[in-house]
């Protein structure tokens, strides 16, 4: 069954992360905790080769993949999604390790044209015990 919900992704995001052009939008996670009011997580699925791959597009004011991975794990309930690696912008086939923002060796996010929000893409794994 194909998901009938669609979202429009701005061109500057799909140019940085072209893998999203072929991905199917699944759902959105947003925190109800006031410490993270500006973070939104968009879950996508795509086939990479022959296997199903889950991706989360993160939209946030200050990107910190280590912290956001823990937030997604808490918000996703029994699925327990967790980041495995980051997709390097403009290079779908290059992966970056998960680390705090101030320890990142390469730029892992893009900014919107107005500079208010940062976006990055993470591959995720999920708990499979259900």
- What is the number of beta strands? 7
What is the N-to-C order of secondary-structure elements (H for helix, E for strand)? Answer: HEEEHEEEE
Low-confidence parts = none
End-to-end Cα distance: 20 Å
- Total number of helical segments? 2
**Main β-sheet: number of strands, strand sense, barrel status?**
7 strands, antiparallel
Mean pLDDT: 82
Which class best fits the helix and strand makeup?
Answer: mainly beta
How does this structure look, described?
Helices cover 13% and strands 34% of the residues. It has two helices and seven strands; from the N terminus they run αβββαββββ. With 130 residues, it is mainly β. It has helices spanning 11-16, 65-75; strands at 24-30, 40-48, 51-60, 82-87, 95-96, 110-111, 118-125. Strands 1, 2, 3, 4, 5, 6 and 7 form a seven-stranded antiparallel β-sheet that branches.
Quick structural summary:
The protein is mainly beta and 130 residues long. It is built from two helices and seven strands.
Quick tags:
single chain; 130 residues; 7-stranded antiparallel β-sheet; 13% helix; globular
Question: What is the topological layout?
Answer:
Blueprint: H1 11-16, E1 24-30, E2 40-48, E3 51-60, H2 65-75, E4 82-87, E5 95-96, E6 110-111, E7 118-125
């Amino acid at each position: 069954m194909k998901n009938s919900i669609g979202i429009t992704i701005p061109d500057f995001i799909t140019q940085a992360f072209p893998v999203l052009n072929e991905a199917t939008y699944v759902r959105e996670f947003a925190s109800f905790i006031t410490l993270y009011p500006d973070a939104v997580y968009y879950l996508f699925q795509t086939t990479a080769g022959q296997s199903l791959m889950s991706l989360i597009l993160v939209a946030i004011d200050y990107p910190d993949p280590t912290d956001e991975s823990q937030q997604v794990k808490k918000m996703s309930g029994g699925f327990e999604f967790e980041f495995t690696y980051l997709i390097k912008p403009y290079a779908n086939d290059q992966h970056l390790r998960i680390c705090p923002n101030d320890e990142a060796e390469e730029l892992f996010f893009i900014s919107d044209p107005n500079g208010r929000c940062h976006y990055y893409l993470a591959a995720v794994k999920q708990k499979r015990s259900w």
